[in-house]
Amino acid sequence: MEKTYKVEGMTCGGCAQSVEKAIKGIAPTATVKVDLENKQVTVTGVEDDALVAQAVEGAGFDYEGPVSP
Amino acid sequence: MEKTYKVEGMTCGGCAQSVEKAIKGIAPTATVKVDLENKQVTVTGVEDDALVAQAVEGAGFDYEGPVSP
């Protein structure tokens, strides 16, 4: 299942890579796509939003919650 | 004790914040200063380089080791 989250604080490719690595650190099989312009992260393969939140916050960015489809 | 490390992959303030938060996550009492221009991170209050390496790599950046004084 693919789900998109709002994440504040990412401003460059280094930030994007950091968020991606943090999420994959918690869920190694996940697919992560970062949209810097829209401050969104799309994750496939993680069922629990709390895990995404934990990874994002742990990497130093602000997890704002899922984006309504 | 203050120690400076070379860290690659940090390009903006978001990256700097991410590295700082990761190191403080592992060592809450540490002081962390990021020098983006010189790609260096100065840490006070962490004795074990391996902890800094773990935090930096966990945040998605490349730990290159201590900088010679």
UniProtKB/TrEMBL annotation, chains A, B:
TM region(s), chain numbering: none
Domain HMA: 1-64
InterPro entries found in the cross-reference section: Heavy-metal-associated_CS, HMA_dom, HMA_dom_sf
Organism superkingdom: Bacteria
Molecular function terms from GO: metal ion binding
Keyword Metal-binding: yes
Keyword annotations of the record: Metal-binding
Gene3D superfamilies referenced in this protein's UniProt entry, alphabetically: 3.30.70.100
UniProt-recorded name of the protein: Copper chaperone
Source organism (scientific name): Nitrosococcus wardiae
